[in-house]
# Entry
Amino acid sequence: MIRKENNRTATALINPDKTVRTSALLALLSFVFCLSCSSSPTGLHTPKGKVVARINKDQITAPQVDYAAEQLRVQVSPSNLPKILDRMTSISLLAEEAVRRGYLKDEKVISGLAWMERMFLANELASRIAESIEPTPEEISTYFQQHRTDFTLGLKMMLMVLPDSITAEQTLAELKQGADFVRLARERSIDTSALNIPGYPTRGVGMSLGWNLRDEEKVFTLNPGEVSPVLTTPLGYQIVKVLEKKKISENPTFNEITQYYISEALKSEQRRTALDTILNNLREKAKITLQPEEYSRR
# Structure
């Protein structure tokens, strides 16, 4: 069944199964790319701060521990600090060995690290923008009142998850021409467990399916027998078919669960809008030259 993965930024998702590898990579990057760092004898870089561990010629500082803990989604405490330092020691040893083998002079490594530096900084910017945005109680209440009818409904629906946009758009075109939803889902969906969603989910189901606020609004406007547009989600390209729509409640309550859902949905939408606005402004001011033909001339 589809599971919604945690995300730290407005633009990047970290797969829980890859958290350790991601943390290791970003910790390594913090050695290699640090604007306010001094070079250590290992050839890596060490940020300013109190040194809390030394591994051969390398050293780990308190700010690095804070960052590593953030990536692991834990709070530093006397009980887990030794484990965090032990993990960082492993990373340091591997990084030192990579330097010893000359990897910092390898063009492939240099190119990879240079790109990861840009990705890291972009994600950090997105994260800080996101953290500064919170919907107000008035915005949450207004949204509920404007969509009150939606919160009375439950949908019986089917869902398919396609691997890429081309397959998704082709599948949607076939569905609009009368193709069987179940047959195409069984042939093409990367998650057939989502084919029959149990019960009659109400507003809020989108949080577990990777939908944004607008995606869920689109789905809840569908009538029985209709299919949604392609929904671009972190979990894949989705198409939904509504089988039945029925009223679950005549008078939906504005309770804590509903308020939490609306708050999180609005937060995600507002953060995405803010980031898109900044990016569009940057694009308008930037001098951009794309030269795809140069790729094949290497």
